[in-house]
């Protein structure tokens, strides 16, 4: 089962007003050591007998500087790395040697994608880089995951804040500018680009209002909170945008059917075209800025894709609007139809991602691996991991973990270990609630099964 593709959901889109951190949605190959999760759960994983503190062995991992600046492998102790995952780390000098071999194997014969030897070497290099990243992510303390999530949210990164806040301010300004262009020119193509740009700041407004509603929840009326209101609001927002596009398609068809002008072209409105050109140039500048840091911050990649789509829509809208004024009148309504169908497709895809969040799609494999590893290394009294599940409840995650302990263990020790693990899992970014169940064997059928009938 492949990782769920949720990066198109509005709930995963960065906003300068989000109060909770976002977790990274990128996937990476699983390491060869112990953890292989592909179906949203793991069953009966046996832990090793490591000598560690009863409370928080993971918190004693050594924090490190940026991986980009690290030239030697980090050092781990048997307590901080009981499963010896660090043995699978590839030294940077060996990865650099693979990179050098890749350059030599090109031999000047076309791009690297057409050279089979160089292509294989490049894939091998990427694999080792992803494996190193995956192992280091598993060995990273929970506190470091929380800190990095807050930093990625923009508390300590100026470039990230410029990308997020700059895009938000630009969307508000460009929406007003394109509203003027559409009304003054009465071009259906520009009305379509205006509708798309107008709903960018409105989507942020939806997130702001939903975030306020989540904070003002009545616990007696909504015991599990109202975090899913954000996803429900985004779904409604998607269908509003689709409805607007359908209305523009109907207007375009009506223009085709009722056009009785003797002129073969429409009226050319220079100010409107210039306004949309300014919007296009602004989006292009934001596109270039986000492109430069898209691999450093996962949330900026979402903004980059959004600006890329807006560039195509605005550029095509300008061409068809000018074409309707200079060449033939029907180019303008035809362009409006094409753009409206494209917008319907894009927002339908977004709505599908939001529905997945609302229904409860499984967390991605990297998150399941992290939850499993934290549970396995939580305490030496945890003998096995019976089951690990994690699934979305709106934009956040619900975690279910079944651990196995000795049947003779005291109730106090069992309770304390389970509660500490629950608190640790709930401190991970994007985890809303964690449930830890304690058992003494793994030969039984699962306690909770999928109900197919009432």
Automatic annotation (TrEMBL):
<dbReference type="InterPro" id="IPR002524">
    <property type="entry name" value="Cation_efflux"/>
</dbReference>
<dbReference type="InterPro" id="IPR058533">
    <property type="entry name" value="Cation_efflux_TM"/>
</dbReference>
<keyword id="KW-0472">Membrane</keyword>
<feature type="compositionally biased region" description="Basic and acidic residues">
    <location>
        <begin position="48"/>
        <end position="70"/>
    </location>
</feature>
<feature type="region of interest" description="Disordered">
    <location>
        <begin position="1"/>
        <end position="83"/>
    </location>
</feature>
<dbReference type="InterPro" id="IPR027470">
    <property type="entry name" value="Cation_efflux_CTD"/>
</dbReference>
<feature type="domain" description="Cation efflux protein cytoplasmic">
    <location>
        <begin position="376"/>
        <end position="439"/>
    </location>
</feature>
<feature type="domain" description="Cation efflux protein transmembrane">
    <location>
        <begin position="166"/>
        <end position="359"/>
    </location>
</feature>
<dbReference type="GO" id="GO:0098771">
    <property type="term" value="P:inorganic ion homeostasis"/>
</dbReference>
<dbReference type="InterPro" id="IPR036837">
    <property type="entry name" value="Cation_efflux_CTD_sf"/>
</dbReference>
<dbReference type="Pfam" id="PF16916">
    <property type="entry name" value="ZT_dimer"/>
</dbReference>
<dbReference type="GO" id="GO:0016020">
    <property type="term" value="C:membrane"/>
</dbReference>
<feature type="transmembrane region" description="Helical">
    <location>
        <begin position="273"/>
        <end position="292"/>
    </location>
</feature>
<keyword id="KW-1133">Transmembrane helix</keyword>
<dbReference type="Pfam" id="PF01545">
    <property type="entry name" value="Cation_efflux"/>
</dbReference>
<dbReference type="InterPro" id="IPR027469">
    <property type="entry name" value="Cation_efflux_TMD_sf"/>
</dbReference>
<feature type="transmembrane region" description="Helical">
    <location>
        <begin position="329"/>
        <end position="349"/>
    </location>
</feature>
<dbReference type="GO" id="GO:0008324">
    <property type="term" value="F:monoatomic cation transmembrane transporter activity"/>
</dbReference>
<keyword id="KW-0813">Transport</keyword>
<feature type="transmembrane region" description="Helical">
    <location>
        <begin position="232"/>
        <end position="253"/>
    </location>
</feature>
<feature type="transmembrane region" description="Helical">
    <location>
        <begin position="162"/>
        <end position="183"/>
    </location>
</feature>
<dbReference type="InterPro" id="IPR050291">
    <property type="entry name" value="CDF_Transporter"/>
</dbReference>
<keyword id="KW-0812">Transmembrane</keyword>
<protein>
    <recommendedName>
        <fullName>Cation diffusion facilitator 1</fullName>
    </recommendedName>
</protein>
<dbReference type="GO" id="GO:0030003">
    <property type="term" value="P:intracellular monoatomic cation homeostasis"/>
</dbReference>
């Amino acid at each position: 089962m492949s990782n769920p593709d949720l990066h198109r959901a509005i709930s995963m889109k960065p906003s300068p007003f989000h109060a909770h951190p976002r977790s990274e949605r990128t996937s990476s190959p699983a390491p060869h050591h112990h953890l292989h999760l592909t179906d949203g759960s793991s069953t009966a994983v046996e832990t090793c007998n490591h000598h560690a503190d009863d409370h928080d062995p993971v918190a004693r991992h050594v924090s490190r500087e940026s991986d980009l600046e690290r030239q030697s492998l980090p050092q781990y102790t048997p307590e901080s790395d009981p499963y010896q995952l660090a043995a699978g780390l590839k030294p940077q000098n060996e990865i650099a040697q693979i990179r050098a071999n890749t350059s030599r194997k090109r031999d000047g014969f076309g791009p690297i994608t057409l050279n089979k030897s160089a292509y294989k070497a490049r894939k091998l290099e990427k694999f080792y880089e992803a494996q190193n990243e995956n192992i280091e992510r598993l060995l990273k303390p929970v506190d470091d995951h929380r800190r990095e999530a807050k930093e990625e949210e923009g508390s300590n990164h100026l470039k990230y804040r410029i990308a997020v806040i700059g895009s938000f301010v630009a969307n508000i300004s460009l929406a007003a500018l394109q509203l003027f262009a559409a009304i003054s020119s009465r071009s259906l193509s520009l009305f379509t680009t205006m509708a798309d740009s107008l709903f960018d700041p409105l989507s942020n407004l939806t997130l702001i209002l939903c975030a306020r509603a989540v904070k003002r929840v009545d616990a007696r009326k909504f015991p599990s909170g109202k975090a899913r209101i954000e996803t429900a609001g985004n779904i409604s927002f998607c269908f509003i945008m689709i409805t607007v596009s359908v209305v523009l398609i109907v207007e375009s068809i009506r223009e085709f059917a009722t056009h009785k002008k003797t002129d073969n072209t429409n009226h050319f409105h220079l100010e409107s075209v210039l306004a949309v050109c300014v919007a296009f140039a602004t989006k292009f500048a934001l596109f270039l800025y986000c492109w430069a840091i898209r691999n450093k911050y996962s949330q900026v990649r979402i903004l980059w894709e959004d600006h890329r789509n807006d560039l195509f829509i605005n550029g095509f809208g300008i061409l068809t609007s000018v074409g309707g004024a200079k060449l033939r009148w029907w180019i303008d309504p035809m362009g409006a139809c094409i753009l409206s169908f494209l917008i319907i497709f894009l927002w339908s895809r977004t709505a599908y991602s939001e529905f997945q969040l609302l229904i409860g799609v499984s967390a991605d494999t990297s998150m399941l691996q992290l939850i499993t590893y934290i549970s396995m290394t939580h305490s030496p009294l945890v003998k096995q991991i019976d089951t690990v599940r994690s699934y979305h409840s709106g934009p956040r995650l619900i975690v279910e973990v079944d651990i196995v302990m000795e049947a003779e263990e005291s109730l106090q020790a069992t309770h304390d270990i389970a509660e500490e693990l629950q608190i640790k899992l709930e401190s991970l970014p994007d985890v809303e609630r964690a449930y830890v169940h304690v058992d003494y064997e793994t030969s039984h059928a699962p306690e909770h099964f999928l109900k197919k009938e009432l």
